Amino acid sequence: MPNQSWISCWFLLSSAITFWDAGYCLMRPRSMEGGDLHWLWKPYTLYGQMDYVYSVESYEKGEGFASAGAVMAVVENLTAYTYLYLVHVANSDLAPLIGYSAAIMTMAKTVVHVGQELFCGLCGIGHNGVSTMISYWVLPKACVNFSLDTVSCLIMFSLGKDIYSSLRNNKLKTQ
Predict the structure, then answer these.
(1) Residue 132 dihedral angles phi and psi, to the nearest 5°
(2) What keywords are assigned to this protein (predicted)?
């Protein structure tokens, strides 16, 4: 298996950020303003005002989209940690497939989050003025998701080549 240490570094870095985000959603109401753990997630006070999906009102209404996305993020991170284990401890040939799967999950979350806003008529962010929406939702989301998705594509390309090579080599061995 080729040296993929950059993928391991990325999974470690991105999972820390993703776990923090998922933690906010899964620890509600304690993570929200007024909760005893809010100090860990202070930026979400503003974010909950910009994007109703993360708001106190959304939580109180029992809307589950944010929590469902958080659960998906936890599964994504556990998949990435499985890749790390398979690469650095078990030295398993299964590692590229697992890493590829983690990268796909990252991209799928972006599609679902953006699709949610588009298909619900901007129900989470449409209350903002255009300049506020662009400054506090569109640009930050674009920067973060562009980074996550660009690296995910690079991971998928790199690990996809490994998977292809492995399949091709096994096919040649059986002929």
Answers:
(1) -65, -45
(2) Signal
CB burial of 52-85 (b: ≥16 within 10 Å; e: otherwise) equals: bbbbbebbeeebebbbebbebbbebbebbebbbe
Write down the domain spans for the chain.
4-174
Q: What is the C-alpha separation between 108 and 2, in angstroms, rounded?
A: 26
For the residues of the chain, what is the DSSP string, one character each? ----HHHHHHHHHHHHHHHHHHHHHHTTTTTSTTSTTGGGGTHHHHHHHH-GGGSHHHHHHT--HHHHHHHHHHHHHHHHHHHHHHHHTS--TTHHHHHHHHHHHHHHHHHHHHHHHHHTTSTTTTTS-HHHHIIIIIHHHHHHHHHHHHHHHHHHHHHHHHHHHHHHHHHHHH-
Residue-wise pLDDT tens digits, 66-106: 999 999 999 999 999 999 999 999 999 999 999 999 999 99
pLDDT at 1 over 60: no
CB 137 within 8 A of CB 128: yes
